[in-house]
Write a structure and sequence with these properties.
The complex is a heterodimer of chains A (540) and B (318). Chain A is mostly helical. Chain A has 22 helices and no strands. The chains are: A mainly alpha (540), B alpha/beta (318).
Chain lengths: 540, 318
């Protein structure tokens, strides 16, 4: 370019600033401006960064090249048969495998690294003290992942449409597999972001990196294998399996907000109250899971399903309960501003507030409600369904599962009370403690009995009531036999004692009263309610 | 909407922060009013950065509270953040971004939209002198330009309080002078500033008041002159006159408050009891000239902030 046509550097910078800071008059640019004004700032930032980054260009390029190569290979390899025989199946399988590379591997890992890098490069501190709330930061990262999903999908979509034209595959099948792929990518991204936020300490990063990489590589393999197997097994899927799709969709839809709320809680200021939001989302999540489990029981009219449902619920509650009772347990003055005012509110809503003891009672109450609900269902449902046989084992296993949760989580909570509050990674410690108790406590009576029995195997007895899997399997096969009933009574008594001790220990939190909003905050709130007078811009 | 108040813009109330057995901040209290510049001085590891991080809502105190415009950093961090800009000593920047995009991101993050954001970006670029390199990638910026960019980020939402941790660190003399001018400009517009620095001479010129902290404890605070008068019992004057040194010594030795006078080559050195203000020193100079001495140099010596700092701190670390 000649010197005459190149503006001098200063002029060019000024022109750039003008162009950047002036509202555009062009149509498409106006649409972009409108979108970017309303978008999360992190999405705009990450979109800009991605456009300039080699990583995105390389991944996107690899995907495009792979699609091109696969299209040519799969179409040419089927010639001339493709003219008169359905050939879409092979082509589509390849496209899904290629699509799973960015959706299952690249995007979730990018979301994870993006969150990690904020902490490593010390930019997170700057963002966290900006006007963005922790929730907005997490939403921004999540939206950025969703934007990338949309970009990859929009790139692949024309190719996938061609597979329909090649015949041998239905539109519903294509959409259903795309649906699974997208929700897998979304939920994986949400989980990756959550892991990144809870493992920001250096010593945890090694484990989290390994975990994320391992999880994604395994899932990538599973998704690729499953795609190949399913597309070939069910090339003509129909919408008759809609409940399965809806159930998976609703569970994912409730899992993602829960993960995002947990992520926000992990990076937010300690005085902020996230417990209410997390526990509310947990209620919705567990309610959704329970609903679909109950749906399986209702549609199959088989009471035997409750055994695995209880097992799944117990596993979930043990993990979530361990994380809950490892909270630092500080009800900050800020959180106390929103405490319920009335006695009824205090009795019902206090359990949603921060605090390890309150978390323990909350999760116990939720689990107890589930068990009571199932017992009610077990008695009511036979009135409507002749095929459904009410089994007393169902009730026994439900009560046992609840007691095990109360016992082990209660013990974990009591032990965690001795751990200093400022220790980093308390949730992981709580989880380890729970796993340790769950694995070792049942072994004690078992080993004692084994040694007394000269190391020969022995049958189940009441003294093995701490052994979860053994007790549940005995209850499943024997119901309320005298031995099982004895074990159950012992278990209920011990877990009741642990629950009572914990309930007494969290009495201080329950008795806390709502504190008034400070005058300075009241002053600002009052002024925000009055209509604002027009003010001159401070930048004029 | 940010509502102004009558509170001090920065207020620390008996702040404590422990790291194990180390008392990083140990019962520190002070306040800064609107439009004031407060210099925070202390040796390395004294607790300056910890205090600033608590004020910036990046850390929490173990006891006590800190308030920005009357809002507690513990209980209302969101309200504090709207009113405060923080420039840390060690900060990160994003790769694959230029200065304009960086400022645009933070302007958006502070909730500035539409024309207000555009104006804020232009104003900040102009104020910090980054408009000449707006297009340049952040990774290619010099240390001084990065400092400007970070200052721009901290002030993009025009906060009422700016906290600058070692802002002049690593800057060349020109950049330091420009930074000082920017700081004074912001103070003149009503922004309250809390600045920590090791370059004490500059702090003395910029700050309305100072606080000296060591081993987590605030040793002394007040205006520069208050601190000097409290800590320096004498005012040392240095004078140069034409050919009448001995006569000046004799005259000075009979004046009130003069503790010691001596001739040092062509200079006359004089020690006066107590810290003398500029006005009192001017009065003495007037009297000397009135007596017929040809004064060609008159200055104080040994009373710089460095002297005060060296006198008051021990250099001990925890």
């Amino acid at each position: 370019m000649s010197q005459g046509t190149t503006p001098p550097p200063l002029e060019r910078q000024k022109a750039l600033i003008e162009r950047f800071t002036e509202a555009s008059s062009q149509g498409w640019q106006q649409v972009w401006d409108w979108w970017s004004e309303r978008s999360n700032p992190i999405v705009v930032k990450e979109a800009r960064q991605s456009l300039n980054s080699n990583q995105f260009v390389i991944c996107f390029g690899i995907t495009l090249v792979a699609v091109l190569i696969w299209t040519m290979f799969s179409v040419f390899s089927q010639l001339p048969n493709a003219y008169y025989l359905p050939g879409g199946l092979l082509v589509l399988t390849g496209y899904f495998v290629i699509l799973s590379f960015p959706l299952i591997l690249v995007i979730p890992f990018t979301a994870y690294r993006s969150m990690m890098l904020e902490a490593e490069s010390r930019t997170f501190e700057l963002v966290s003290i900006s006007g963005l709330s922790a929730k907005q930061i997490v939403q921004g990262k999540m939206s950025s992942a969703c934007l990338q999903i949309a970009i990859y999908l929009s790139t692949m979509l024309p190719c996938i449409v061609i597979t329909y034209l090649l015949r041998g595959i239905s539109v519903s099948t294509i959409l259903i597999y795309l649906y699974f792929m997208v929700i897998a990518s979304v939920v994986l991204s949400a989980i990756s972001i959550m892991i990144a936020t809870v493992s920001r300490q250096r010593f945890l990063q090694v484990f989290s990196n390994l975990f994320i990489l391992g999880m994604q590589l395994v899932l990538f393999y599973v998704v690729c294998a499953a795609t190949i197997a399913f597309v070939y097994s069910f090339p003509m899927m129909s919408w008759v399996n809609a409940p399965v799709l809806i159930s998976i969709g609703t569970i994912v839809l409730t899992t993602v907000p829960l993960c995002m709320q947990c992520s926000a809680a992990a990076i937010d200021f300690p005085s902020e109250n996230h417990a209410v939001a997390i526990r509310s989302r947990f209620l919705v999540w567990i309610g959704t899971i329970f609903f679909w489990c109950a749906w399986v029981v209702v549609t199959t009219e088989t009471a035997g399903h409750w055994v695995w449902i209880y097992s799944v619920l117990l596993a979930i509650f043990l993990v979530v309960g361990a994380l809950g009772v490892s909270e630092r347990g500080v009800l900050s003055p800020r959180a106390q501003r929103a405490l319920p005012r009335t006695l009824l509110g205090q009795c019902t809503l206090t359990w949603f507030y921060p605090g390890a003891g309150l978390a323990y009672v909350f999760f116990t109450s939720v689990f107890a409600s589930v068990v009571i609900g199932v017992i009610g269902f077990a008695y009511a449902f036979p009135l409507y369904s002749a095929a459904y046989q009410q089994e007393e084992e169902t009730i026994a296993i439900g009560v046992a599962a609840l007691c095990y949760f109360m016992l082990y989580t209660g013990l974990t909570r009591l032990i965690m009370m001795t751990v200093p509050r400022h220790i980093v990674g308390r949730p992981f410690l709580g989880l380890l403690m729970q796993a340790f108790l769950f694995a070792l406590v049942p072994l004690l009576p078992y080993l004692v009995l084994l040694s007394l029995n000269d190391f020969r195997s022995f049958s189940y007895g009441w003294h093995q009531f701490l052994f979860v899997t053994w007790t549940i399997s005995e209850l499943d096969s024997g119901g309320f036999s005298s031995v099982n009933a004895g074990a159950l009574v012992l278990l209920a008594a011990l877990s009741g004692v642990v629950f009572l001790i914990n309930l007494l220990m969290c009495g201080r939190d329950v008795l806390l009263l709502r504190v008034e909003v400070p005058p300075r905050v009241q002053q600002e709130l009052a002024s925000s309610r009055t209509p604002e007078a027009p003010v001159e811009s401070v930048f004029d | 909407m940010v509502v102004p108040s009558n509170h001090p813009m920065i207020e620390l109330r008996r702040l404590f922060r422990f790291y194990g057995k180390t008392k990083a901040v140990n019962d520190v209290s002070f306040h800064v009013n609107a439009g004031q510049v407060f210099g925070f001085i202390g040796p390395n590891g004294a607790g300056k950065t910890t205090t600033m991080r608590i004020l910036a809502t990046l850390d929490t105190p173990d006891y006590g509270d800190a308030l920005i415009d009357g809002f507690s950093v513990i209980n209302d961090p969101d309200r504090v953040r709207r009113r405060m800009g923080f420039m840390p000593d060690d900060y990160g920047t994003y790769p694959n971004m230029n200065c304009l995009e960086y400022l645009d991101f933070f302007a958006r993050s502070y909730g500035l939209v539409g024309r207000e954001r555009m104006k804020a970006i232009r104003y900040t670029l102009g104020y910090t002198g980054l408009d000449k390199i707006a297009e340049k990638s952040i990774q290619g910026l010099s240390k001084g330009m990065r400092q400007r960019l970070c200052l721009g980020r901290a002030m993009i939402h025009r906060p009422a309080v700016l906290i600058l941790d070692e802002p002049a660190n690593g800057l060349d003399p020109r950049a330091r002078i420009e930074l000082r001018q920017m700081v004074l400009g912001l103070a003149a517009e009503g922004t309250s500033l809390l600045i920590s620095s090791h370059i004490l001479s500059e702090l003395g010129e910029m700050c309305d008041s100072l606080g000296i902290i060591e081993r987590g404890c605030m040793i002394v605070s007040g205006t520069v002159q208050e601190i000097q008068s409290r800590l320096m019992p004498h005012t040392n004057l240095k004078m140069k006159v034409i050919e009448q040194q001995q006569k000046l010594v004799e005259w000075l030795s009979v004046q009130d408050g003069v503790d010691a006078v001596a001739v040092d080559g062509t200079m006359v050195r004089c020690q006066i009891l107590g810290a003398k203000s500029d006005r009192e020193q001017a009065a003495l100079l007037r009297a000397i000239v009135h007596e017929g001495f040809d004064v060609i140099e008159f200055s104080t010596e040994g009373q710089t902030l460095e002297d005060v700092f060296m006198r008051i701190t021990t250099g001990a670390v925890q």
